[in-house]
Write a structure and sequence with these properties.
It is a single chain. It contains 18 helices and two strands. It is mainly alpha-helical. A hairpin with a 5-residue loop joins β1 (82-84) and β2 (90-92). α10 packs across α15. It has a two-stranded antiparallel ribbon with strand order 1-2. The structure holds protoporphyrin IX containing FE and copper (II) ion (CU).
């Protein structure tokens, strides 16, 4: 990528006046009273504050979803469970959850299990992974990386946050009211028939519907921001790859989310008014629901993974101190993934659609592997020969590469028609999507949180604790989910609370793994809290990055982001030619003929 000439816009502001120069303090500076501070945050249109508010809301939901996951794993530690009933008789209920809730009826205990894993899935998909990186880091970083003061529509941005909270309340309300047992996919006709007349199923569907609007508005905001608010001198190919990834994500969000909105609305109507859209008794078609659902939900898996890939590109470039290998290939592969994601949804329904369409969807599915592999090879190309700085964000990036490779490749087993007929609805699928959603997206998110933490909060975290947390997360994750590939291939179906003794060992390892994973997250949490309370002050550019949030903004940034309107004078990864500004050049003795470059 070429270096870019200095800005075309004037930079000669008279000091302190005009709209170019800002002397105010950090965006985190509290107001005079606690109440004023609360009001300030609640009504803020500052993308940074909104990003931070999203971050805390998402982390809170991650905690709730994680609790549900631990309950599921504890339940599955034992194939059956013995308990003493009220009359003093020994009973085998098979169900820890039932035992805890005082439920001795086997069927009811099973139902409780169904509710817990449904709650887990719904929270993790709609309230955690979909918004995770875009809503928190995307909001915080996109304007900073583009050299803008804010996103294109700041008020819409705040509205998105409130819609997110509003939707979450529906989900939490439904859960408190007893939850739903449909699975996160709401497949009909079960979802239109179960617990007839009860509001909590409608409330949960409504939650997903409402959250969709938050997603659409955020996506819309990002698309316009990227088109309109790039700093002077920043062409499309001078944008950091994070922006490309977020841009591809935003396009999918805007195009696909309305489809799920309509679908969920139809589902609610079907439940409330028995119209006969999906219910075969009324002449409806349940497979139609599956098409509608996956027409959204497959593209959305790329809403989940593209942001992960986006942060990985930044972290790898910075910690390898190298120009990213194949910038344009990485950038365009984001768009290719976004495009292809719309034509492969049928691979979720091989068992319920016609043979011809199944074969076509199977073939199309393999196309997704191409742009995904382009990214992986380019990252490896960047790593090759680099002197890699193994800080927490970077080890997370390496962990991502490893786990995403497993997740993506096992996707191909599932995309192949013949193997999927055997693997469909087994733990193999569960393992696959946890490797991509958790092993890849959440791992990228946690790594990225460490990467940009100093920028967001102006405090450093403890590096050893970060690495310890990573080790626990990485070991715990693999222990939890790798055995699930094996048991799935051996026929363990998903969504069952009990199992035969053939699967004992796999489930035991898996549950122990999940506790290690939990320990890893708690280490990170403690580290972050410690950092906020007692962490050393962060320099503006602790890792020596070249993108504008590092080179031109304080840590934490001031309210208007930049003291001077930034002008882009080098590419985001021109490490060969530039000593990162705001860092100590002695830290970067590598080839750095900083001044020789003609502009
Ligand atoms: C990279 C190439 C990928 C391929 C070829 C692929 C392929 C597939 C296929 C064929 C299935 C259906 C399996 C079945 O139910 O029988 C599936 C399920 C799934 N995949 Fe992937 N996948 C890929 C990547 C991803 C990514 C990146 C994500 C998310 C970040 C993801 C998330 C999911 C989810 C959530 C399901 C299961 C949904 C459910 O039934 O509950 N996949 N994948
Ligand atoms: Cu899919």
């Amino acid at each position: 990528m070429a270096s870019i000439s200095s800005g075309t816009k004037g930079l000669d502001h008279a000091h302190g006046h005009g709209h170019g120069h800002h002397d105010e303090g950090s965006y985190l500076t509290p107001k005079s009273t606690a109440w004023a501070t609360v009001i300030d945050w609640a009504t803020t249109v500052d993308h940074k504050k909104i990003g931070v508010m999203y971050l805390f809301a998402i982390l809170f939901m991650f905690f709730i979803g994680g609790l549900a996951a631990i309950v599921v794993r504890l339940e599955l530690f034992e194939p059956t469970r013995t308990m003493i009933d009220a009359a003093g008789n020994t009973q085998t209920t098979g169900h820890l959850i039932g035992a805890v809730m005082g439920e001795t009826d086997l069927l009811k205990a099973n139902n409780l299990y169904n509710r817990v894993f449904t709650l887990h899935g719904l929270i993790m998909v709609f309230l955690v992974i979909v918004p995770s990186i875009p809503a928190s880091l995307g909001n915080f970083l996109i304007p900073l990386m583009l050299g803008a003061k804010d996103v294109a529509f700041p008020k819409l941005n705040l509205l998105s946050w409130y819609i997110y909270v509003f939707g979450s309340l529906f989900a939490i309300g439904s859960a408190l009211g007893g939850g739903v047992d449909t699975g996160w996919t709401f497949y009909t006709p079960y979802s239109t028939l179960t617990e007839e007349g009860h509001w909590r199923v409608v409330a949960m569907i409504a939650a997903a519907f409402i959250l969709g609007f938050s997603s659409i508005l955020t996506g819309l905001n990002f698309v316009v921001t990227v088109h309109k608010l790039r700093a002077p001198g920043m062409g499309w190919f001078d944008m950091p790859l994070f922006i490309w990834g977020m841009y591809g994500t935003a396009i999918i969000q805007v195009l696909a989310t309305p489809v799920i909105g309509i679908t969920l609305l139809l589902l609610i109507f079907e439940r409330l008014f028995n119209i006969g859209i999906f219910d075969p008794r009324l002449g409806g078609d349940p497979v139609l629901f599956q098409h509608f659902f996956w027409f959204y939900s497959h593209p959305v898996v790329y809403v989940m993974i593209l942001p992960g890939m986006a942060v990985i590109s930044e972290m790898i470039a910075v910690f390898c101190r190298k120009k990213i290998f194949g910038y344009r290939a990485v950038a365009f592969s984001s768009l290719a993934i976004a495009g292809i994601s719309f034509i492969v949804w049928g691979h979720h329904m091989f068992t319920s659609e016609g043979e011809l369409s199944a074969a076509i969807f199977s073939a199309l599915t393999f196309l997704v592997a191409l742009p995904s592999a382009v990214k992986v090879f380019n990252w490896i190309g960047t790593l090759y020969g680099a002197s890699i700085d193994l800080k927490t964000p970077m080890v997370y990036a390496l962990g991502f590469l490893f786990l995403f490779s497993i997740g993506g490749l096992t996707g191909l087993f599932l995309g192949a028609l013949s193997t999927d007929l055997h693997l469909h609805d087994t733990y193999f699928v569960v393992a696959h999507f946890h490797y991509v959603m958790m092993g890849s997206t959440i791992v990228a998110f946690v790594g990225a949180l460490h990467h940009w933490w100093p920028k967001m909060f102006g405090k450093m975290y403890n590096e050893s604790a970060g690495l310890l947390g990573f080790a626990l997360v990485f070991i715990g994750f693999n222990a939890t989910f790798f055995p699930q590939f094996i048991m799935g291939a051996h026929g363990m179906p998903r969504r069952y609370a009990s199992y035969t003794h053939d699967f004992d060992i796999y489930h035991k390892i898996s549950t122990i793994g999940s506790l290690i994973l939990l320990a890893g997250f708690l280490v990170h949490l403690a580290n972050f809290i410690h950092s906020l309370v007692a962490g050393p002050k962060a320099p503006p550019n602790p890792w020596g990055g070249l993108t504008l949030e590092w080179t031109d903004a304080d840590s934490p940034p001031i309210t208007h982001n930049f003291h001077h309107e930034p002008v882009v004078t080098h590419g985001p990864y021109d490490f060969d030619d530039v000593v990162p500004p705001q860092t100590n050049p002695a830290d970067f003795p590598l080839p750095a003929p900083a001044k020789s470059r003609g502009h």
